[in-house]
Write a structure and sequence with these properties.
The protein is α+β, with helices and mostly antiparallel strands and about 190 residues long. Helices cover about 30% and strands about 20% of the residues. It has three helices and five strands. The longest helix is centred in the first third of the chain and has 25 residues, at about 5-25.
Length: about 190
């Protein structure tokens, strides 16, 4: 075998190996697109006592899951409101932090026929301006968005409103003029 043939042979072997690695990498977490989490196949918030996964900030600037039971609700909007009200109360675990200050409450939540949740958060009092850093804002917004989208697969995305208006940003850093989707990049691999 001459040197040129050996080089071509080695290049073909490397391309095949690279193809196998890429195929493995894209298939390892299931069918979700990069940066997205596939919704559960079966709606979790239906039945007598339903389990829900809540995503709260924790140490290390990540979102950690806390699983809780919620009372069953008949309609999608009732399930959404119940989930959001429980989320806004904050975590039960001592090592996790509330995503929003206590001055934030649920104003209204509705779902369009296209599966878009419009969530209006009412903010009053001392923290009405939410003087957050960019990481804190991302953890709060995506903690809420991931909690909704990963528990209610009928919902495809979230439009976030603040005191009845969709604003360009929720706390000064994150663009909230677009449809918000689940963000797996902020999720921790396990609870601390």
């Amino acid at each position: 075998m001459n040197q040129r043939t050996a080089g071509v042979f080695l290049a073909v072997i490397l391309l095949i190996a690279l193809g196998i690695i890429i195929l493995w990498w894209t298939q390892r977490d299931g069918p979700a697109a990069p940066g997205q989490i596939a919704a559960p196949e079966v709606p979790r918030l239906e039945g007598d006592d339903a389990l829900a996964d809540f995503y709260f900030p924790g140490n290390g600037g990540r979102l950690f899951v806390e699983q809780r039971a919620l009372p069953a609700s008949e309609t999608l909007e009732e399930r959404l409101s119940s989930l959001l009200e429980a989320f806004l109360l904050g975590p039960e675990a001592q090592n996790l932090y509330p995503a929003f200050p206590p001055e934030v409450s649920l104003g209204h939540a509705m779902v369009t026929d296209e599966g878009v949740a419009h969530i209006d958060l009412t903010i009053t009092g001392q923290n009405a301006n939410l003087p957050w850093g960019s990481k804190q804002e991302m953890l709060a917004v995506y903690g809420l968005v991931d909690t909704v989208l990963l528990n209610l697969p009928e919902i495809q995305g979230v439009i976030l409103l603040r005191n009845g208006e969709q604003r360009s940003t929720f706390g000064g850093h994150l663009d909230t003029t677009r449809l918000l989707l689940a963000n797996q990049d902020l999720l921790a691999e396990r609870t601390p």
